[in-house]
Amino acid sequence: MYTQSFSVPDDTGQKIKAVAAIEPPELMAKFDARIDADGRIEPQDWMPDAYRKTLVRQISQHAHSEIVGMLPEGNWISRAPSLKRKAILIAKVQDEGGHGQYLYSAAETLGVSRADLLDALHSGKAKYSSIFNYPTLNWADVGTIGWLVDGAAIMNQVPLCRCSYGPYSRAMIRVCKEESFHQRQGYEALLVMMRGTDEQKAMVQDSVNRWWWKCLAMFGPPDADSPHSAQGMRWGIKRVSNDDLRQKFIDATVPQAKVLGITLPDPDLKWNEERGHYDYGQIDWDEFWTTVNGNGPCNKERLSTRVKAHNDGQWVRDAALAHARKQQQRAMKEAA
Ligand code: BYC
C-alpha cells in the first residue's frame, strides 16, 4: 500500500545509480533510453519500482489536493454576492472535484486502489497541498485563491503536461485548461472589487497580504532541501525545479498586481536587472512544515470535513455498485 515513508534518495548521483542497480539491467536500460528520448511510459510498460512509487506519491497527493481544495472555496458558495459569482464558483469547485477524479484514475493505472489512497488521506498519512489549510475569511479570498493559488497551480502544472508518465501527462492537459479559467475568474473578480468602494479595496489588500507568502511556499521546499527533485527531474516527472517555478510565478505576478493596484506584502520585492528576475524576501519554512505536518490553522477541520463527506456519500457508492451489478447480470442473462 501507498505510504508516506517512501523517499527517493537525495544524495543525487550515487543514489540514483543505487535505484537502477536493484532493477534488471536490460529492462532498466530500455526504460532509461525511453526517458532519454523524451518518450512516454504507459501503464503496460515495465518501469522501476521506485518510479512507480514516486508517481503514486505525487499523483495521489495531487488528487488529494484537488478534493481538499474544494473546501475553502466551497464554504463561500452560499454567501456569493451575486447569481453570476455563485454560478462561477459552483462551476470552479465542481471542476476541482473532476480534477480529483482524473488524477485518482491516473494513479489507479499504477496498480493502487482508490480506496487505499483515500484511506491514507482520511487517516492523515497522506499529504495534500499546504495551501488548503488556511481559512477563507472574506469574499475577496475567493478571488485571491483564483488569482494566486490557481495561478501558482498552473505554473506548477503546465510542465506536468510533458511528464514522462502518459496517463498523468494527458490528465494534466485537461486540468490546465480548466485551471486557466479558474485563474482568470479570480483576477476578474478582484479587478471589479478594486474599482469599487474603499472597503472593497481594503478587503482585497487584506486578502492578498494573508495569501501571498503561503502561495510562494506551495512550490515546495527550496531545491537544496527538496529530497525528491533530483530523481523526479531525471525521470522526467518534474520538468522545472521548485525554486525556478517559484521565481517564474513571482515574475509573472508582479505586473498583474500593478494592474490591480495592490501592494504585494514583501519589502524586499524588487527587480534585479542583473538576474533579469525579481528578488524576494524570506519564506517562513518553519510555518510551512508545521502546516504540512498537520498543525496548520485548518488541517483538522479540513480532514474531518472530508471524512464526513466520504461517509455521507457511502450510500451513493453502494447504489452505483448495486446498479452496475444489476446491469452486469442483465447483460449476462441476455448473452446466455
Ligand atoms: N504542500 O522533495 P519535494 C491544486 C512535500 S494545488 C504539502 O520538493 P516533490 C489546486 C512533498 O510532498 C497544488 N506538501 O517533493 C489549486 C514531499 O513530502 P513526501 C497541488 C508539500 O514531490 C486550486 C516533501 O514536501 N499540486 O492543484 O519533488 C484549487 C519534499 O518536497 C508541498 C500538485 O500536487 C506543499 N506545498 O515536489 C484546487 C502538483 N510541497 O511526499 C487545487 C503535483 C512539497 O516526501 N506535485 N511538499 O512526504 C508536484 O509538482 C510536486 O509533488 C511538488 C513537490 C512540487 C508539490
Question: Which features does this protein show?
Answer:
336 residues; mainly alpha; two-stranded antiparallel sheet; 2% strand; globular; disordered N terminus
Task: Give a short synopsis of this structure.
Helix content is 66%, strand content 2%. With 336 residues, the protein is an all-alpha fold.
Question: What topology emerges from the helices and strands here?
Answer:
Blueprint: H1 12-21, H2 25-36, H3 49-74, H4 83-108, H5 114-122, H6 140-157, H7 166-194, H8 198-217, H9 229-234, H10 242-260, E1 270-272, E2 277-279, H11 285-295, H12 299-312, H13 314-335
Antiparallel strand pairs: 1-2
Helix pairs in contact: 3-4, 3-12, 4-7, 6-7, 6-8, 6-10
The structure holds benzoyl coenzyme A.
Residues 4, 7, 57-58, 61-62, 65-66, 69, 96, 127, 129-130, 149-150, 153, 156, 218-221, 226-229, 232, 238, 242, 292 line the site of benzoyl coenzyme A.
Protein name: Ring-1,2-phenylacetyl-CoA epoxidase subunit PaaA
GO molecular function: phenylacetyl-CoA 1,2-epoxidase activity
Pfam families: PaaA_PaaC
| CATH topology (level 3) name | Ferritin
Order of strands, main sheet, comes to 1-2
Describe the global form: globular
Integer-rounded radius of gyration: 22 Å
Percentage of helical residues?
55-70%
- In round numbers, the mean pLDDT is 94
**With helices defined by DSSP (H or I, 4 residues minimum), what is the helix count?**
13
- The end-to-end span amounts to 39 Å
Compressed to H and E, one letter per element, the order equals HHHHHHHHHHEEHHH
Q: State the major sheet.
A: 2 strands, antiparallel
Structural class designation: mainly alpha
Poorly predicted runs: 1-12
CATH superfamily: Ferritin, core subunit, four-helix bundle
Q: Tell me the number of structural domains.
A: 1
